Input
Amino acid sequence: MSARSLTPLLLASTSPQRRAILTQLGIPFDVAAPRYEETEMPGADPIELVRAHALGKARSLVADAGERPILGVDTTVSLGNELFGKAADESGAKAMLSRLSGHTHEVISGLCLLGDGWEELAHEVTRVTFRTLSEREIEAYLAVGEWRERAGAYAIQGLGARLVERIDGDYLNVVGLPAALLVNLLAERYPGAYGIG
Output
């Protein structure tokens, strides 16, 4: 069976990065904005947080899915006990990049794949080490505007790659979707389908 004849996933996200990764993987999908409000949970474990948000996003579209499996994803950046979501403004982005400079942080994604009568909830952690950045480098990067709508205020698939010294784990997780994790879940739930398994 070709991927084109399969029931597409319903992606509970408007992220262009997630759409691009699913397209790259050849997985058919439709897109809907989740009807789920992310709430800050001070002191929350980052893995529990992203898993809860991914589950909430997926469940919010159950009424719209029909026969389509629903994919919910949430990502955060963690450095020690600090969580870095999306910066509200340029000064917030500068503060994030200054904190990440010269350190290794974790990009943590929760992923929920939801079907008829079942849910698969998992997570992925990728370690990213930043070079030690000068204030001039940070200012130049901020001027490009890539920091907007990005956990940790950078886009590794763009000019943000200049900030990175090393990456350990799934690169696409840092871009916005833990692709290897998704492929494994699809292979388990739909063996031989989607060109996987």
